[in-house]
Amino acid sequence: MGSDTDLPVMKDAAKILDLFGVTHEVKIVSAHRTPEMMYTYATSAHSRGVQVIIAGAGGAAHLPGMVASLTPLPVIGVPVQATPLDGVDSLLSIVQMPRGVPVATVAINNATNAALLAVRMLGISDTDLVSRMRQYQEDMRDENLNKGEKLETQGWESYLNQ
């Protein structure tokens, strides 16, 4: 992430990666304040065994694109709501990469989906991760069905006031 102010959002990615048992790093690497560190991190990631990079950034949000320009690895950008523009500036900055510099981008503040996408990418070569992802999806479905049944049984007012 570009700053520690991104951590309240990016912690959700770490929680999902922990849930799936995916080894990961949580670092502050700023495209603007520590460009040399960003360069070293991005150019060495593949040789260090990193397979996917999730980069969260707010405001100008240059980190995901700059990292993507320096590494052959897939990069997932998480636009972080950090300015009066409600994260739209970050979203547009990340999705408007020039041809040849792809950055997969998730919704504003949605580090959860970034991590789930990373798990799916890693699952291409890991059948255990695919099995765990299927279970995660089944659990989400079951949770949603249970909520629907509870709503129908209790009615909307009771459901909201529990």
TrEMBL record:
Keywords: Isomerase, Purine biosynthesis. Pathway: Purine metabolism; IMP biosynthesis via de novo pathway; 5-amino-1-(5-phospho-D-ribosyl)imidazole-4-carboxylate from 5-amino-1-(5-phospho-D-ribosyl)imidazole (carboxylase route): step 1/1. It comes from the Eukaryota. It is an enzyme of class 4 (lyase). Coiled coil: none annotated. The keyword Isomerase applies. InterPro entries: PurE_ClassI, PurE_dom, PurE_prokaryotes. PANTHER family: PHOSPHORIBOSYLAMINOIMIDAZOLE CARBOXYLASE, PHOSPHORIBOSYLAMINOIMIDAZOLE CARBOXYLASE CATALYTIC SUBUNIT. This is phosphoribosylaminoimidazole carboxylase.
